[in-house]
Amino acid sequence: MDLLLVCGELYAPESRGVVEIFVAGGVIQSISPVPAHGVSPVRALVESLRGRVIDVVPPHFIAPGLVDQHVHVTGGGGEKGPASRVPEAQIEEIVEGGVTTVVGVLGTDCVSRSLENLLFKTRALQHDGITAYMYTGSYRAPPVTLLGNVQRDIALVEQVIGVGELAVSDHRGSNPAFDTLCLIASDARTGGMLGAKAGVVHLHMGDGDTGLAPIWEVVNKAHIPITQFVPTHMSRNPRLIQEAIAWAGQGGYVDFTADQDENRELAQVLENYRYVLFRL
Fold it and tell me: What is this structure's pTM?
């Protein structure tokens, strides 16, 4: 059995001080403070059995792996023609940023890229050692699927945990009407219930003036819980940031894109409204 001891300052998410994390057989067995003096029994054991010891020194630290719920693992882009397509993500690129769980999405292009390709890429990432899931569907509505409809995909395909990223208030989407959004959300919710999964609807939010209004209509009229939806790109513009505050204030979840120009304004908003967004 492989033995590993990692020593350093742990954040989970608050600082838990300098600790020793003992791993055996790929499973964390214990987390304990580093003794002020001498060598701990765990460290002595690992060293005596020729296990691996990693000492993490400042400015580096230890933290749980991050979850990225929106990754174009089969590649993105393509909106400026075939030459603008982005290559698929590699495992090294993912873990370099501390990410150990990903959810793959198709995005705009469901013509030259397919759900079958996304499923195989997701399975490949699982084989490589990280946790990987995927959404059925893409920007368009009705969604493209593997088994004929959203409900079947979520209930029957192990890696599928929801549908998305469905484009809303965006010129690249299908401008789905109320009835269409209700059907997609209901199918996702029921598929999740049948498959013991989240069954979320992951929403690509565009720059359109309607913002979250179409989704609010579904929540208010169709008895779909607000937590069934996860709108992303909510830092796209100042108006959407404010809509995110209202959405979260009613118990919903929101996702922000980390590499946009509005990051400084977003950081200030999060600081001002952290009591509202604490659940995020």
Answer: 0.87
CA dihedral 257, 260, 264, 268 (to 10 degrees): -30
104: Cβ contacts below 8 Å, ≥ 6 apart: 71, 72, 73, 74, 118, 121, 122, 125, 132, 133, 134, 135
Q: How far apart are CA 163 and CA 276, in angstroms?
A: 27
Give the 3-state secondary structure of 215-267: HHHHHHHCCCCHHHEEEECCCCCHHHHHHHHHHHHCCCCCCCCCCCCCHHHHH
Sheet-wide strand order for 99-104? 66-71, 99-104, 131-136, 160-168, 200-205, 229-232
CB 166 within 8 A of CB 141: yes
- Per-residue confidence band for 88, with pLDDT thresholds at 50, 70 and 90: very high
List CB contacts of 268: < 8 A, sequence separation 6 or more. none
Residues 6+ apart with CB under 8 A from 60: 8
pLDDT at position 233 is 92
> 137: which residues sit within 8 A by CB, 6+ positions away?
106, 143, 144, 145, 150, 163, 164, 165, 166, 184
Rounded to an integer, what distance in angstroms lies between the CA atom of residue 50 and that of residue 240? 54
